[in-house]
Fold this protein.
Amino acid sequence: MAKEALRPEDRVTDGASLEMLHKAEADCVETCFNRFDTQSNQCKFGINGVCCKICHMGPCRITPRSPKGICGADADTIVARNFLREVVGGAAAHSDHARHLVLRLKAVAQGEGGDYRITDQPALYRIAARYKIPVEGRSRDEVALEVAGLFLGEFTSQEELLKTLTLAPLRQQAIWEKTGIAPKGIDRMIVESMHRTHMGVDHDYRNLLGQAFRTALADGWGGARIASMVGDILFGTPTPVRSRANLGVLDADCVNIVVHGHEPALSEMLVVAAGDPGIKAYAKAAGAKDVNLAGLCCTANEILMRRGIPVAGNFHQQELAIITG
């Protein structure tokens, strides 16, 4: 017997999303919700994390009759390996976001930043003080270049602990030191994690989970913390703003541009471009009322908190924004 298809009302409760799902059905457009239905028979081994395909002797699946993989890894080891590799993927993505911003700051300090500039000089000096970087008698760009160099060192450091860890409360730092999970360089943690999870290297799930904590901290107190600080220097420290949200922020009479993805430097330039009188005149000459900028997903929050640009939706609404037409 065929499985009964879910109605849009069974999938979402948000009114705007519901309207778009009905439109998607009428237009015969598939969405992530439809594609989820085609994956209804999801692999139970994968869901439980007990499938290992790290080497080509596998994939190996753990069952009561097969409690170990070909290499000897049991369920605990396989789950820990898979978890650590998921942490690595997230840490690599988010810390690289920070690296891009640091390199942008370095270029600005060297006079090669194009239209990018240091928007919040007090933030630069505030952050320099945290790291005991002298500012007296030095130009703003000299200070910025040293800050950028220090942050780049947080990626490449091989033996020293991350300097950003010292920004945490002392009690928290003591916990990290006691448990041995304070990370070294961000890139080293990511590479070491991939090394540890390779076949025949580390079979102890406790070691693997400890490395997962280290790698997560390298991202959270390394990459993410650096991205926040450099974002404040380049684009301004956020203050409370009032804005709007959901798909209704899109305007049928305007040229709608939706910022999406993982690139805050580009989104800032789009904010500038959307307000440019020449671009506004070009849009109006084509019959539009104006240029309307909105955001989706993570980068949307960057321009929301600094510019008040409205947020059109979340991860599950990205296709729905396109379906509006």
Q: What stands out?
A: The two ends are 36 Å apart (CA to CA). The chain is about 55% helix and 5% strand.
